[in-house]
Each structure stands twice: as C-alpha cells, then as structure tokens.
Amino acid sequence: MNTARANIHEYTVSELSGALKTAVEERFGHVRVRGELSGVKIHGRSGHLYGSLKDEKAVLDIVCWRGTVQRLAFKPEDGLEVVATGRLTTYAARSKYQLVIERLEPAGVGALMALLEERKKKLAAEGLFDAARKRPIPFLPEIIGVITSPTGAVIRDILHRLAERFPRRVLLWPVLVQGEGAAEQVAAAIRGFNEGAEAGRLPRPDVLIVARGGGSIEDLWPFNEEAVVRAVAASRIPVISAVGHETDTTLIDLAADRRAPTPTAAAEMAVPVRRELLERVAGLGLRLDRALWRHAERARERLRQLYRHLRRPQELLAVPRQRLDELDERLPRALRTLARARQLRLAELAARLSPRTLASQFARQVERVHHGGRGLAHALARRIERAREGLHARTSRLSAAALLRELARARTEESRLGEALARAMRERLRRRAERVAQAGRLLETMSHRAVLRRGFALVHGPDGRLITRAAACRPGLAVETEFLDGRVPMRVEDGTAGRPRRERRRTAGRSSTKSPSKDRSQPSLFQY
To answer: What is the share, in percent, of the chain residues with pLDDT greater than 70?
Structure first.
C-alpha cells in the first residue's frame, strides 16, 4: 500500500491545471450545448461577452470573443434559451471550466417569440403602443428622411417609387440593419434626425421611413430591441416603419405612427401620385366652373322673374309725386302759421320789455332794497338791545373787573357785528346797484330815444299820440315832431304829402318791364 502511494506522480498546480485542460479539450473538443442565458455582460472596452448557461441542475460559464459577438444576429439577453457551439476549456486562474462560444443561436423560434411577447407586454404597459399618441403623416412632405442600409435594394426601391409618384427631397441616414450594433445605429439615427433638425445642423424631415427587407426572426431582431422602440416613440417627427414583408411583425411596427408592409409601400404612404393630384385638381376646377355657371344662370333667371313682376317706373313714382304735391301745398300755410306764432311771441317779449314795465320793475327792486335795509337795521337794533339787556343782567352778578371784561367782549362783538352788517349791507347794495344798472341799460336800449339818436323822428298828433301811418296826416293837421333835443310844432300842408306812396311788390321769378324812373334824386341800386 505504501509503495503504491509512493509511486503516485506529483504535480505542481500549474502542471495539474495544464493536464486537466489538455484532457478536457482532447476529450470533448467542439460541443453543442442548450441552455438559458444568465448573467450576460459585454465588457465595455474589449467588447467580449461573459455569462453562463444554465438548466435546472447545473451552470456552465461561457465566454464569447468580440468578433463572434459582432456577427450575432440578435442581442443575447438573460432568460433567452439558446444553443451554443464552441470549445470546452479550463481557466486555470480560477480553477474552472468554461465554454468558448464560436456560434450562438436561439433555441428555435419559440424561444425568441416568448421573449418577444414578454417585451411587448412590458412596452405596451408603458403606453408606447397607444393609438392616441400616433400622429398623422403629412399629406405632401417636402423632405423625407430614410433610415436603412445604403447598399441594399431597399433604398433603391424607395427612391424609384418616390420618383414615380411625386419626387421629393430625400435624406439618407445609413445604418446596419442586421447583426451586432444594428439596433443601436437605428435608434441613434432616429434621435439624430430629431436633434439635428432642432440644432439646425441639417434640414428637418417632415416624415421618417425606417426600412429593411425581409428575413428570419433572427435577422429582424434588431427592430424588436427596446432602444429602437423607445426612440420611435420619442420621435417628434412622424415615423413610417417598413421592416420585412407583410407577414413579418416587429415591435417597431407597433410603436411607429404608420406601418407599411414593404419599403415600396412606405414610399407610397409618404407621397401621393402627382398625376392623380393634377387630374383631381383639374376635375375640381371643372366642377367649380360648372357650379359658377349654374349659379350665374340661376341669378339671371331670378332677375328675369323680378323684372317681369316689377311695375312700370311711372307707377312706382305716382305715389311719391302725389305726396310731394301735397307737401308743396302745405308748406306755405305752415310757413305763415309759423310766422304768426313768431310775431305773437315777439309782441309778448316787447310788451315785457316796454319802458313802463322796466321802470316798474326797477322801482320794485329799489323798494325791495330799501325795505331789506330797514329790516336788517331793525334786526340789528333788536339784537344789540338784547345784548345790552343781557349785559345789564350780568352786571348785578359780576364784579367790576369781570364786568369790564364782559363789556369789552360785548363791545368787540358789537363792533364785529356792526362791521359784518356794514359789509353785508354794502355787498347787498352793490348787487342791487348792479341789477339796477343792468335794468337801466336795458331800459335805455329799449327807449325810443335810442331810435332818435340814430336820426329818426317821432310825429305826435294833437292828442299827443304817435302817428304811425301817413294816411292819418290830414291837410291842415297840427302835429309835433320829436327830435333827440326837443319837439318842433308843424302843420300838414295841402298837396300829395297826405297820399302815402306804397312800395311796389315784386313777384318772385318775374322781372319788371317798366323803364327805370327819370327821377335821379334817389340813386339806383344797380348803378355802377
């Protein structure tokens, strides 16, 4: 027993690790392993992928170098069931074995569909697929942004279809549409169009088209990534998704504002057919012309009907003419009535302003002033008397000094009241004098002497009354002619003086046919 133990080969740690590595690699070589990804992590600098495959009973560490990761058709995620092909080896530094993956693919379509369904529920719960947030596509965009591969048939199909329907300006943002990094590039392109337009670095597209040709679910997987879906949902520019064929459905289709079954259909959604628009405009123009013609024809027919029912102009003017004749007859009567009313009003005013009336009013005002002055004097005298009586009553109760003070105050009050009375009397007399002066000026204005100052004279009969008509001057009648400075007795002589000369009235609109008078003592108004 001891000899057997002594014959056991002694290894160093490195030797044993190397022997195990050789044994494992020679025994297994390339293997194909099915399991669920767990703890997936891509190193930031190197780009290598680290994680593990697990099932219900065991866990196997895995490593996938950067070159292999970039060739993957999908993004490895925790929980995804995959089939990994690679070499089994050991890692001596950690005393563990691991699988170096050379090829990684989902474990059938079912695994990807399960992951897709789970992600779809998650994003739908956040409202990224709500119909309320979807925006309409502009009817005729000026600029169209296209996000796709620059070398595939997709971009050629889109450009060709746009040129056929309605040529528009196209901005292409080239991206990968398959493999590692495709999802990140597509999301970055969507954000780039939005941010670049806001910053002014590039023209703002009116609509975006995200397009890719058909393929397997693994090939189309970048368009199911959360980064792409969230970028589409956050875009301020309407997005049309055109990924795969009509039977292919990705999450970007649910988040986009419109889904096109093919890239060619996306171009058709973006722009209308120019020829059809021109035909439609021409058709609308014809319809408008016909409508205008029908409207004008109806208007002409309406005018013809109105003309037939319209009475003759003479009949329309008959009533207004009759009304005008009635008004023409009533106008002179109305003017005469108005003139008589004005004459009566003037006579009333003249009677109120006669010299006797003004003199009477002036006398009453003077009497009222004197009466008011006497009443005020009596009132002041009574107040002074009451003050004296009160003063005498107090003298019996006050000392000599107090009496003197009270007497001084009484005298001061008496003086103040006397001055106030004097001021009031002067002010009242001044106002009365002003009113008397105004009445005097008015009396002077209305007096017949003002007429005499202007060169006129008044003729008085034997009884002293004024003679106002020439017919009243009989031959031999003794009269007095009143001038401004006195009266002169006169007598009416025989002759034509007693016959009043009446002024000839002229009829409006008629000219006199008589020759002008030969008497040159009165100058004519029409002499130059």
So the answer is: 85
Among residues 89, 107, 125, which one ends one of the domains? 107
In a domain, 416, yes or no: yes
Residue 64 near residue 48, CB atoms below 8 Å: yes
What's the pLDDT tens digit per position in 65-83? Answer: 888 888 776 778 888 888 8
Contact between residue 240 and residue 145 where contact means Cβ atoms under 8 Å apart: no
Distance CA 28, CA 20 (A): 12
Token readout for 432 is: 């009365």
Do 163 and 228 fall into the same domain? yes
Q: What integer is the mean pLDDT of 21-44? A: 82
Average pLDDT on 381-406 reads 72
What's the pTM?
0.45
87 near 100, Cβ under 8 Å? yes
Six-digit token string for 300: 């002409």
Residue 42 CA to residue 182 CA, distance in Å, equals 16
Least confident of 105-109, 203-207, 244-248, 431-435: 105-109
**What is the domain count for the chain?**
5
What are the pLDDT digits (tens) for 46-63?
A: 889 999 999 888 888 899
Together in a domain, 75 and 90: yes
Q: What is the helix (H) or strand (E) element at residue 408, kind and residue range? A: helix 400-446
- Both tokens of 69, joined, read 């990761």
Task: Please list the alpha-helical segments (H only) found in 225-312.
Answer: 226-234, 251-255, 263-270, 274-309
Alpha-carbon span 513 to 88, nearest angstrom: 150
Mean pLDDT of all residues in the chain? 80
Q: How far apart are the first and last CA of the chain?
A: 178
Same domain? For 438 and 471 the reply is no
Average pLDDT over residues 9-36: 78
Torsion of CA 30, 31, 36, 41, to 10 degrees: -10
Cα separation, 396 vs 389, whole angstroms: 12
Is 472 in the same domain as 490?
yes
In a domain? residue 121: no
| Region of residue 179 (phi > 0: left; psi between -120 and 50: alpha; otherwise: beta) | left
Q: What is the pLDDT of residue 435?
A: 85
Identity (one letter) of the amino acid at 277? Answer: L
Residue 3 lies inside a defined structural domain of this protein:
no
What pairing do the DSSP bridges indicate for beta strands 59-64 and 458-460?
Answer: unpaired
Domain housing 292: 283-309
Looking at the fold, whether 144 and 234 belong to one and the same domain comes out as: yes
Residues 146 and 214 grouped into a single domain: yes
- Are 228 and 235 spatial neighbours (Cβ–Cβ below 8 Å)? no
Task: Note the pLDDT of residue 238.
Answer: 95
Beta strands in 182-238 (DSSP E): 207-212
Q: Is the pLDDT of residue 395 over 70?
A: no
In a domain, 475, yes or no: yes
Task: Tell the burial category of 441 from Cβ atoms under 10 Å away from its Cβ (0-12, 13-18, 19+).
Answer: exposed
